[in-house]
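Troubleshooting: if your tokenizer reports a length mismatch, compare your output against this known-good record of 188 residues.
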Amino acid sequence: MIFATNNPNKLKELQAIFNDYTIQSLNDLNINIDIKETGKTFYQNALIKAKAIYYLTKIPTIADDSGLIIDELKNWPGIYTKRIENDAKKINLSRNEYLIKKSSKLKNKKITAICCLVYYDGKRIIRATGKMHGTITDKEYPGNGFGFDSIFKLNDKRIVSQLSNEEKNLLSHRYQASIKLKEKLKKS
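Known-good structure output:
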């Protein structure tokens, strides 16, 4: 199978869960493609990517679309999470600094990380979604992890970047989606 990503951290997380499958990344296959995410939902974007890579390679493909939603900002940035990097660069901030600034005056700092995984093999479409709930922090907490881990405080007050890989993998949105997808694949 192919996991339609160039992100080595995402690949490691998925390979750890799908350890009884051989999972390759786009890098492993020397595929350098920018697939436009034109969907209106995480599911639609993941499906677009899974189909694009499958039709390119004819190898069963898993793709994801994931992001962060901030409740009080009407679920922003949502499917646009990846794209806010450009807005942040315009004002010389990292993506996480930008999100902290945008949420600094909010009363409700509740956030949800969402991951939608889609498997496509030319016939079957199998999807699974995972969510992780918490609040956005007022500063970054360096440590382990990537993406939003350094600004994501779980409901039990732990910061995701300060968890071990094993701890994070047992509660992350990608882990939840991966476990569900693996179970659905075994049943199909």
